[in-house]
Amino acid sequence: MNCRECQKQLSDYVDDRLDASQRQAVDGHLGECAECKTSFGLLERARRVLASEGPAEVPGGLAERAALAAFAAERAQPARSFFDRWIPVAWPAAAVSAAAAVLLLLTTTPRTTRSSAASVTNGDPVRVVLDDGDNDLAGEVLGVEVNDEN
Amino acid sequence: MRDLNDVKELESLAIRAADGDQGAFRELVEKTHATTYRLALRMLGRPAEAEDVVQETYIRTWQSLGKLRDKRATLAFVCRITRNVATDKLRKLGRRRIDSLDAQIGDGVGALVDSIAHDGSAQDELLESAQVGVAVREVVDQLKEKHRVVLLLREVDGMSYEEISAALGVPVGTVESRIHRARKELAQKLERLARAQKREAA
Hints:
The complex is a heterodimer. By secondary structure, chain A is mainly α. In chain A, 79% of the residues lie in helices and 0% in strands. Chain A contains 7 helices and no strands. Chain A has helices at 3-14, 20-32, 34-52, 62-75, 78-108, 114-122, 125-145. The longest helix of chain A has 31 residues, at 78-108. The radius of gyration of chain A is 33 Å and the shape is elongated. The model of chain A is unreliable at 112-150 (pLDDT under 50). Chain B is mostly helical. Chain B is elongated. The N and C termini of chain B lie far apart (51 Å). The interface between A and B is large, with 48 and 61 residues.
């Protein structure tokens, strides 16, 4: 085993992830190469320094505080809860009303004014509100599911 | 959450929590918050900020859990929110991670190089002293974020490769290669530091 191979295996070596023959080869190289031995010694001691800090203590009561914050944040957003509850019902109702209004306009308005009636329908403000709402929700889900780790 | 075989239980809690069961959500938070807290801490460096990130994480989780289709991926989902919140926080603060030990780092590096300069054979004792601990942290802080976070989760928090993989949402192979690179760089930087000081002293 040469130095390059040894350096490549060192991480798995310290984590005891090598099989017996690979481990023996690293042991053999460390026994005869002062440079790799120094490098291994520095790594081992640095690891010991880091391990001596011990796992981060999780602040007491954090889980309870986080859960309560989540419930409180939900209560603090009544407007959003209202739309969440009613938009699924309101949207089909609004769509049916709009369709009925268009039908009424088409059957009762003189032919020359039909196009302007249709353009008003296309700009239906209910539709715009729903799109915005959908985008917000999609963004939230996408932000969570699509943004990948570097 | 240390036991990743507990996916089934977490899945069942997530299904109930998504239906508005607050008790189930509390349990879900209880089982995952150690992982999210450590992840946030290793990304941000300060306990108070990590705590803020954890709270925001569960606010978003409670609001969006219903949209997670496969509830077996709950831990990955929660950890991803944690990473997003922590990344946003870092961006807003306009800085890279700051460690609480920052103030002592200059002294620690000085102690490391001074001692090596005066006694090259004293590396072993040296690297175990408190001040050298600070010097090691200084070198760790110079690592790229993706390498540093993996290294700290492994060496300080003692998480397994599989746990880190779940927390970061990357394959185990990626965790392996990041740990390998981080360790290699750590040893090289420490070695360079010691050699440079020896040269200066000579």
